[in-house]
Amino acid sequence: MPKVVPVRPETGNGAIPAENDVAIKVRGVTVGFGEKVVLRDLDLDVRRGEVLGFVGGSGTGKSVLTRAILGLVKKWSGTIEVFGENLDKLSREEHRALERRWGVLFQHGALFSGLTVLQNIQVPMREYLHLSQALMDELAMLKIEMVGLNPDAAHKFPSELSGGMIKRAALARALALDPEILFLDEPTSGLDPIGAAEFDELIGTLQKTLGLTVFMVTHDLDSLYSICDRIAALADGKVAAEGPIKELLQSQHPWLQSYFHGIRAERMNR
Ligand SMILES: Nc1ncnc2c1ncn2[C@@H]1O[C@H](COP(=O)(O)OP(=O)(O)OP(=O)(O)O)[C@@H](O)[C@H]1O
């Protein structure tokens, strides 16, 4: 009998993961701007194959941490490893090779307004791969199908799309290079509850079928309940609590108490 190997490692049980089960390892990271310190000696692990929801009050530094991991913001101190590679030790070529292994969905989609959906999806392909136009067209159409967009959307410009369609197109672009890690910055913001639930479902399905590791900054409690294996909460520049939602619901941290036990959360608990 062939041995059955699970696609996703077991997650969400709170156990300390083995070293090679960690996709992103952040240790002692401090980031600031001028006099202001935003992240202070922050530690965080994102495990391979999990959906980690990253929450925190407005302006606490969720995007700053995301950008620090992506190498878009300079940290003052600490180390960040992705797939065991210390980002500070990589040559430019090695960093580019690593960039091919992640995809990013920035807040508000951030599509290029002068390019069609198809062309937007091909931007990372042009930057990182050397493929024929015909192959890029074929691959981009595949991504459009993967995110549930109608093939007609391929030749539309962002201004011709609804908010939900823009998010899907941006997700298709994030998936252009078949990444192993997906960074999502508030993916459901601006969507109505039905659109948001559909988008969560899409992310959950893609994550399972493609075995993705997902790092998701979100304010959306519904997303935390429906697709996150674990949640990390940022407060005072550090991860104040992390674990499966059931554990975080028990946390005595004042911000988490007010966050989870507010009106919307009560509705979810009923
Ligand atoms: N390039 C920058 N220069 C100066 N300050 C910055 C810069 N980028 C971020 N900040 C500051 O860092 C802090 C954290 O910002 P960040 O965007 O990470 O917050 P956030 O937790 O993602 O907030 P929100 O949930 O509102 O999007 C804010 O006070 C912001 O003004």
Structural overview:
With 270 residues, the protein is of the alpha/beta class. It has one domain (23-269): 3-Layer(aba) Sandwich (Rossmann fold), CATH 3.40.50.300. It is built from ten helices and ten strands. It has helices at residues 62-69, 92-99, 117-128, 133-146, 163-174, 193-210, 221-227, 245-249, 254-260, 263-269; strands spanning 22-33, 36-47, 51-56, 77-82, 85-86, 102-105, 181-185, 213-217, 230-235, 238-243. The strands form two sheets. A six-stranded mixed sheet has the order 6-7-8-3-9-10, sandwiched between helices. Strands 2-1-4-5 form a four-stranded antiparallel sheet, with helices on one face. A hairpin with a 2-residue loop joins strand 4 (77-82) and strand 5 (85-86). Helix 3 packs across helix 4, helix 4 (133-146) crosses helix 5 and helix 6 runs parallel beside helix 7. The longest helix is centred in the last third of the chain and has 18 residues, at 193-210. It is globular. The protein starts with 21 loop residues before the first strand and ends with a helix. The model is unreliable at 1-13 (pLDDT under 50). Bound molecules: adenosine-5'-triphosphate. Adenosine-5'-triphosphate binds at residues 33, 38, 56, 58-64.
